[in-house]
Specification:
313 residues, alpha+beta, five-stranded antiparallel beta sheet, two-stranded antiparallel ribbon, 10 helices, globular
Amino acid sequence: MLSLPSVPHRVRTAVGALLLLAALTALVVLPRSDRGTAARQDGAPTRITDGDIPWPGEGQAAVTLEGSGQVLTHGAQRPVPIASLAKVMTAYVVLTGHPLRPGEEGPRIEVDRQAAHEAGVGGESTVVVTPGDRRTERELLQLLLLPSANNIARLLARWDAGSEEAFVRKMQRAAHDLGMRDTTYTDAGGIEPTTTSTAADQLKLAREAMRLPVLRDIVSTREATVPGVGRVANSNTLLGTSGVVGLKTGSTTPAGGNLLWAAKTDGTHLLLGAVLHQRAHTTPAEGLTAALEASRALIDGLRARPRSTGSEG
């Protein structure tokens, strides 16, 4: 019998390591088609195809399919006044500091004389409240987000932080923590034109806001009855159409019309979008109408188009 030459120990060790590596690779690496199937089975969201999107003809916009990691933008993403979209951050900061579980009303908050005096003053969006009345946190959030009451925004700010100025600093810190680098808050209600942001930044806030069950529930409500105030309607008239389930309108003369929106697709994920600076420097009513119309066209176009299942890039 022929004897084989001996193999050095180091060579045998190297060969053994290579064989072990090959075996492990065979176990964990799937063929390309199988990897795609595994991703779909895990419920990975599809991605928006970015051709021929019906973007607004003016201003700026941004959209994302929640969970996809993809953000598409249109128009120059420069800071512009956002009007009452600021109230989404106000609600976010309040609920972060004073969280509510679904069904909870939260603490009762006394309406101060300032909030009562500000009702109907200065042409702002406000609601009539009575000094000394005690409204729950949830009721005040409804008044903040549905009829978009500026006097309630300032009341909540004072309750949470002692003063509106201190609360605005909390808003700015929250914006920084969310990566909203092009956003500046100077008031709790958004009436000041120095409260500015971009559509892309507002998407970062929308994503987090819609993860708060109480906020998500309020912004999806067309109207509510608040004791001591009566029935209030949501200024977002797209609710219940085109799959829309939120979020918030905003309009002033400097800002034009703005809409931060959330809409259901035919799957399990939300489309989130922001449309800013529509018909700026006209009237708040004209700007808001333009923002709602532009948003509806954008949402309908996105919901009707096919979405790819490619990997993020």
